[in-house]
Amino acid sequence: MATNNIKLISPDSKLLQYTQIELKDPTDAYLESCFAAIQQNRYTIESNTLVQIGQTNKKSKDHISHALLYGILTDINNKAKCFQDLIALNGTNLSSIIGTLETLIMKNWRRIYDNVRQQLIWFLRETLAANIDGIDRLYYVFLRQINPHEQCLDLCETIIELLLIHPLFLKTYPEMKLLTIYTFLSIFPIYIRRKSQQQQRQIDFIINLTRENIHCLGRDGIRLLIQLGHVREIDAFLKHLSLNTSNDYLPKILSLETEPKYLALPLSFDLERHLQFLLDNCRINSQEKYYFEWFQSQYLNFKQHPDSIYLCSHIIRYVCVVCRNQLNPQKITRWTFISWLLTQLYNYQQTLHQTLISASQTAMNAAAFLSSSSPQLIQINEQIIQCRLAIYYDWFLFDINNLQQMTNEFDTQLNSTIVGYHLLTISYHQAKQMLLFLLYTSENLIVSLKSFLQQNIARLFMELFQRIPILNSQQLLQMFTHDRDTYQRLLITFFSLPMSTTAISPDNDDIMIINDDISPNAAMPATDDEVPSDIMIMSSNTA
Amino acid sequence: MDNDSTPSFVVQLPPPDRFEPTTVIAKLEPNQRQINLLVIVLRIQANPQKTREGHEIHSFKIADRTGSIIFNVWNTTGQLIAIGDILRLQNCITQVFKNELCVKPGRNGIVTKVGEFMMDFNEEPDVSILTASMNTELINYKDRIHSNKRPAQAMS
């Protein structure tokens, strides 16, 4: 009988950790072979001969540069000498080295040894100080590691401290400034829970940058700020935006669509690739259960990694805005994926709820116990609202005048709003929840722009009913025949002929913050049909 | 400027990675050898089973674009494989085990993880389920093996 006699040896590496069944990464192998060539050619890393060879022999220059890079990453004692030689050899043009590091970090961040990561950060610091060309590319791959999945909260602190020490970098690379702001606004819900001495200074730094540049980020910048409305400084900034700036300043920011490169920032490189692959290739019924299960175990394992709930709204926003519809009817649709994602969140919410109910069996006042004792339940409730906002955000800001008279697939506005429309067809209960969400959020999101937001939704409904006649207003209203008040409000707000356009007179009302730690269980008026604590829209933080 | 008299710096670059699957799952039959496959792990087929010698047999369902089959692997290798892994199987053999066709690493078999998640596959047909014709062939094969052994037994 044949034995299962497989020899298992992990690839030997100073850069990356491997299991015994993995292949050596090509970049790792190349760097190692360049460094090994130093000894094979009987030189030493400390000698100046390498630089001389590289300067006179173009073929060897690239190999020697990579050997020096390997020395920086693995040899702490000689890293400064290696860096000096690297600059002597290449000047400020390190494009080949930066390209290699981009590949190494993008593919292998999780496998990189901790000491090598420290060396990479040291290299970033030195190249920032030396004002190397193309350093923004390297900075970007580090920035992308800061997201609700990888978290890398130590890296958050390091990056901010670097930016404080080198303020010229963001002035030289304004695009990096905007990417940095968006990244940190995305990670703040997790980051601010971790108390550190420098944190207030760091938060102030990011908020100052945000104040100066919010008009460049577009509508999703405002969405992220709304998510952080419970932070005192951000609440003050939002009030300032709505009260103290000119009447059309906030609408102008909201009319600007945020570019896809910002929406990709909260997703790690792997997550983005896997998500694109899943939406492009997954076939209905035959592959769905496998790909969805793998995706969940990798990125949405709420029980083992509770902070992954913060990823959901960003994934949804990316899918709605950046991804396109599949024309192949055998492949899954974006709304199928989002519906599945929402179901996972609801299931997790129910699990937490049940856990609390069992724990509260012995409590004297079970309701008070439930409402006060679980930050996790508050967080999941908030994130469910954020997910719904991510789906329907563009509905509030739909601009009929910008609609291209082309097919649905090519118009960017319709591309993102179609997802929310199809979600209304998936299940009765979900459609009801979403309509109520649209109604109440349109009334409370930005009170001074209430009519504007509601008119946009009404016009979008009309447009979608005509272009994609799978639904009509009667079907949607029928869900509320038992609740005449809500029926009338929906009918008047969304399904009547639009009012004549009048000038919007902003009130002195504040932007209503969606999540607020003060009264976590404030909810819509309950009806007979709905679960009272389902949607949580808070009252404003009026002074 | 290139200078022919400068000392050389010769790098022995790592060899390029070349792998070609020799077959696909749909073409697998019992008692084949030297099989190279590129597959993705769909699920854990059964809990690890212990042999009398203390080895652990891990059983997975693997698939490529032509079908799926059971993959049995022992000990540490099985512990390192996770669902969603894309595996390169070299020098594997097919075998009928508990009336199911399965693949396992051969004497010099190599199992390498080359990726995760991003591979198209088809779960059907499930090649592990032996067809009637395969069953007949298998019985005939076993009969041939036994009849080859009989002269040696008579001599002893």
Automatic annotation (TrEMBL), chain A:
Coiled coil: none annotated. It comes from the Eukaryota. InterPro entries: INTS3, INTS3_N. GO terms for cellular component: cytoplasm. Residues 60-346 form the Integrator complex subunit 3 N-terminal domain. Pfam families: Ints3_N (PF10189). This is Integrator complex subunit 3 N-terminal domain-containing protein. It comes from Adineta steineri. The lineage of its organism: Eukaryota, Metazoa, Spiralia, Gnathifera, Rotifera.
From TrEMBL, chain B:
GO terms for cellular component: SOSS complex. GO terms for molecular function: DNA binding. Gene3D superfamilies: Nucleic acid-binding proteins. One of its GO terms (biological process) is response to ionizing radiation. InterPro entries: NA-bd_OB-fold, SOSS-B. The keyword DNA-binding applies. Keywords: DNA-binding. This is Uncharacterized protein. It comes from Adineta steineri.
